[in-house]
Structure formats: structure tokens, C-alpha cells
Amino acid sequence: MRSGSRFLGCAAALLMVTGGAVAEVEIPTFARDIAPILFENCTSCHQPGQSAPMSLLSYREVRPWAKSIQKNVSERTMPPWHASSEFGEFSNNRSLSQDEIDTIVNWVNGGTPRGDSKDMPAMPELAAGGWALGEPDLVVKYKEVSLRGGGADRFFDLVAAPKLDKDRWLTAVEMKPSNPLVAHHVILYQQELGGGASPNGWLGAWAAGAQPMAFKEGTGRKLMKGSKIIADMHYHPAETAQKDTLSVGLHFAKNASDIEKELVNLWIMNNDIDIAPGQERYVREAKYTFRQDSQILSFLPHMHYRGREFTYTAKYPDGRSETLLHVPAYDFSWQT
After folding, report:
1. Neighbour tally for 90: CB within 10 Å
2. What does pTM read for this prediction?
3. Distance (Å, rounded) from C-alpha 287 to C-alpha 282?
4. Mean pLDDT estimate for the chain
5. Which residues are paired to 234 by β-bridges?
6. Nearest to 173 by CA among 84, 250, 113
């Protein structure tokens, strides 16, 4: 062994030469060290029926992808997370710590040992019938969309009219396209009886990598009796003809009294964009003034292919300024 730079694939420990002394470093195993990281951060998408291209629930499934996993976690492209750690803490942060990344790297470099099956953590709860949040109270299924191979992106407004016997409070919304290969994103909103758009009609959204929208306890969105649910679908065609069917799972509050606050959306936008040819950095701003004390529950920074960076800044009445969210490398492919 030369300076600890070579290893035995079946070894249980890695020997490193440091300052003339031989230090023994235990090689991580899949059962004890890797599976807990994957189950906590990766398998919500990397399981059958979800958007990821392969399942990572077992050693047999993970082992062929070991080198790719090592590369992607080392470069922090997986799990996808684009908010700067310098500002704010977010409940859906799925980025790995440096210790977790080092554990995966050392496991691959150490020969990807399986370990003792007794060390395996409990299997994560799998999506029931493909539903990450469990069986919905109501499933809305849209008509099938057929896409020819190639060509420009395509957009559809799909319409469904769920038969509700009364107004209901939504506590969670989960959108499930059948073909993630071509489905880029969907925006879901309601159109009230008579065709008018509800001022707070936005119900939720889905894009590759996004988690189902489970609302904070005590909050909800009102779905009106007789309203239609519009699914604004964005597809980017594959090389061959494809089909997709969108299903939406709705979860309702058991009692209206369970809802203390109605969720609303603020569309803080700037559509006045005119980028000169060759311009390297183009900055636009949009702002909103709160007229009452408010609680912000989430942000959804959104631009298209030209977007590079996004920052939310709060300016307080006393003159203070605070960065609430910074996305230094915005990626249109991931809407988080």
C-alpha cells in the first residue's frame, strides 16, 4: 500500500499514512452509513412511480450507480438545492452536509461494501399507489395529451370539473404527470362558477424535483363548489412521440374549523424585460409593499432560460434591510 492511495475492495478499514504513523479509518458501509443518507434525502424521488429515472431503495439498485452518485453529490448537483446557505433556513432543504458527502465519497473509494443487513434502517414509507402523501381524498384526472416527437415546447390548458357538494378547504395538493420525460411543469388554479378567475385561485404547482404541496397546519386554500380546476401544462417534447396523463390528488381538511388562515399568493413580477444583444449582466427588480403584518411561508423564484440569479430582500420601516433568499445559480429545470 503506497501512502494509503490504494485499497482492497473487501477491506473493512482504510489505512492512511499520516506523519509516519498508520491511521485506520473505517470504510463506510451501505447498510450502516449510506442507506440512511439516501432514505432521508433522495428516495422521495428515487423510488418506483416517482420522477427520478432510477430507484435507490436497495444495495442492488444503488451499486451500479455508485460512481455517478459520488460525482453528483461531490459537485452538489444532487440532491438538487439552489438556495445559498448564507441566508435563511428552509424546511425543505435537501442538500447534503459535507460530512454526508465525504461519507458517500469514502464508501465508493472504499469499494462500496454492503455491510451487515442488521444495520439497515427501516425502509422509507413508499408512495401509496404512487402518491407521496398517501391516498388523496379526491383524485382529478385530466384527458391524455399526445405529443409529436421533436419541435418547440408546447403548452396546454387542461380543464377538469370535480363534483363537490360544498366548498372544501385544501390542505395538500399533489400533481403526478404520467410521463416525466416530457412534463416540464404544471400550474394549477381554479376558475369559479360563471368563468371568473378567483383572485386567490392558484392551488399549487409541480415541476421536476418539486415536492408535493402540503400546507402549514391551520392553513388552507378554499376550493369552491362548482369551480373548474385548470392545469396549465408545459411540455418539452422528446425525440419520439409521447403521451402524458396528469392526475391531481387533493387532500381536504376534515372540518372547516381546522383552518385558521387562508393562504394567498403575491405575484411580485416584472415583465418589462428587454436584454440587449451581448449584454452579460441584466438586472430587473420588482417590489411589493405589505399593508399589514404578514407571515411569509414560502418563496418560488421563477424565471425562464435566460434567468441566472435571484434575490429576495426585505426592507423594513426602520431602514433595515435583510436578504431572505439568494439563489446564486438559478436553473429553470428545477422549480423548488
Report:
1. 15
2. 0.75
3. 17
4. 86
5. 155, 185
6. 250
